[in-house]
Design a protein that fits this description.
- By secondary structure, the chain is α/β, with parallel strands linked by helices.
- It has a single domain, classed as 2-enoyl-CoA Hydratase, Chain A, domain 1 (Alpha-Beta Complex).
- It has 12 helices and 10 strands.
- It has a 6-stranded mixed β-sheet, sandwiched between helices. It has a 4-stranded mixed β-sheet with strand order 4-6-8-9.
- Strand 2, helix 1 and strand 3 form a beta-alpha-beta unit.
- The longest helix is centred in the C-terminal third of the chain and has 35 residues.
Length: 296
């Protein structure tokens, strides 16, 4: 199976799927997302594969959903030229499929280990949440900054870390570093950056030593049990409320989009995130920015 936006390899019973759009921090285009799920299916169908590693090329795991224009020349987030009904429909159709994507990952017979090598933002943050296990580089940074321009969070964060933790990070879009992600239970382990893939592979190979039926069924007990306990219903509710959040256009949001149309994505992100600098943690914290300035 050939791919354009991911790298796929199998070695020692471990399939590695690498998001491979490093020039745009592995932003999730429709094609990349489709290829990633095809690769999940390819690995799941390969009886020689016993575990899957998901990681990113370059400085990011994934910076989230692509903010650039679509092949039609317009951004789906931009209501310009659409009726209210058309804009709501766009988001309802988009958000209803997200729960299916997480369920797809949970129904695989092979566990997915996220090896978070850098920025995990927005949709990239969500994908590592949906993986069965997450190992983070000490250089990893996590956040959902899109809430700052009106967007939804995901109930996966609440299910994993608790509601007070989820509210702290989802209501601000603030960045958290790898140490904080470990403290709140978002990730299983934080490792030196240059050891990330080796540690992920070592864990995947330990899993591969366990009989296949045991791994497959015990993953099902955890993930299908979680789904049956109510998380799937919560994700369906999330899709409905997420569509409302995405389509709740305001004058402030329109101003941001006007800047995006006229001056591009960089100016738009500076307008959105500038008031929140410095971030409490990570490369854009006061400490992080000072360290970067010193290196220059």
């Amino acid at each position: 199976m050939s791919y354009q936006d991911i790298l796929y390899s199998v070695e020692d019973a471990v399939a590695t799927i690498t998001l491979n759009r490093p020039a745009v921090m592995n932003a999730l285009s429709a094609n990349l997302e489709n290829e990633m799920h095809r690769a999940f299916d390819q690995a799941d169908a390969d009886r020689s594969v016993r575990a899957i590693i998901l990681t990113g090329a370059g400085a990011a795991f994934s910076a989230g959903y692509d903010q650039g224009p679509s092949p039609t020349g317009r951004r789906k987030t931009d209501p310009n030229g659409l009726s209210v009904a058309e804009f709501i429909e766009t988001w309802q159709r988009n958000d209803q499929v997200l729960a299916d994507k997480w369920m797809h990952m949970w129904k695989l017979g092979k566990p997915i280990i996220a090896a978070v090598n850098g920025w995990a933002m927005g949709g990239g943050f969500w994908y590592q949440l949906a993986c069965d296990i997450t190992i983070a580089s000490e250089q990893a940074t996590f956040s959902q900054p899109e809430v700052r321009h009106i967007s939804n969070t995901t109930f996966l964060l609440t299910a994993l870390c608790g509601w007070k933790v989820a509210n702290r990070w989802a209501l601000t879009g603030d960045h958290m570093d790898a140490a904080e992600a470990y403290r709140i239970g978002l990730v299983n382990e934080v490792v030196p950056h240059d050891q990330l893939i080796a540690r992920a592979r070592a864990l995947a190979k330990r899993i591969a030593m366990v009989p296949e039926p045991s791994v497959r069924l015990n993953k099902a007990i955890a993930m299908q049990g979680l789904s049956a306990s109510g998380v799937h219903a919560a994700l369906l509710l999330e899709a409905t409320l997420g569509a409302l959040a995405h389509s709740s256009h305001t004058p402030e949001r329109e101003h941001m989009f006007a800047i995006q149309r006229d001056k591009g994505v960089k100016a738009y992100l500076e307008l959105r995130d500038g008031p929140f600098l410095p971030e409490p943690m990570g490369p854009k914290s006061a400490k992080g920015m000072a360290a970067r300035a010193a290196k220059k």
